[in-house]
Design goal:
Helix content: over 70%
Number of helices: 6
Order of helices and strands: HHHHHH
Strand content: under 5%
Organism: Ferrimonas lipolytica
Radius of gyration: 17 Å
Protein name: DoxX-like family protein
Keywords: Membrane, Transmembrane, Transmembrane helix
Number of domains: 1
Structural class: mainly alpha
Shape: elongated
Number of strands: 0
């Protein structure tokens, strides 16, 4: 956060960049840990208990989707000033949209009565963390669209 404190940005831009970094980093980390036990077992169990179609594809789509969404947000954060507005906007929209789709599926899994709390993150049946990620992602996209960006073109 030190680099944001001294950056010549408005407060809204600083908040947006901090949120993009937080959400992007969280998504990359969350997708990556699902490659290792015990998280891979828990994630596979969630998919099996919830009855999501094509379990193997659902597992890979969930993991790679989280990593991709986070990477897109981090890419716009780190390299956004070197991109045209159109490219940066499309990447941020893709990252935000992908995050919302993934979190919507996560809500379904959390609320599915066949999925026990023991295989869920924080062993919590209410999708509290999922809703927080969705709210922060929506707020970040709102700030991104509201704040003028300093980019080429």
């Amino acid at each position: 956060m030190f680099f944001l404190r001294n950056a010549p940005l408005t407060t809204g831009q600083k908040v947006e960049k901090a949120l993009a970094g937080l959400i992007g980093g969280f998504l990359v980390m969350a997708g990556t840990v699902k490659f290792f036990d015990p998280f891979t077992t828990m994630f596979t169990s969630q998919i099996a208990y919830s009855g999501l179609p094509f379990p193997t594809l659902s597992r890979w789509a969930g993991q790679l989707g989280e990593i991709s969404a986070g990477a897109l947000m981090l890419l716009v954060l780190i390299r956004g000033s070197k991109m045209t507005n159109i490219v940066a906007d499309k990447l941020m929209l893709a990252g935000t949209g992908l995050t919302m789709i993934i979190m919507t599926v996560a809500i379904y899994v959390h609320l599915n009565p066949n999925v026990p709390a023991t295989v869920l993150p924080l062993q919590s049946k209410p999708p509290v963390m999922t809703l927080i990620v969705m709210a922060l992602t929506a707020f970040n996209f709102y700030l991104y669209r509201r704040n003028p960006q300093q980019r080429i073109g």
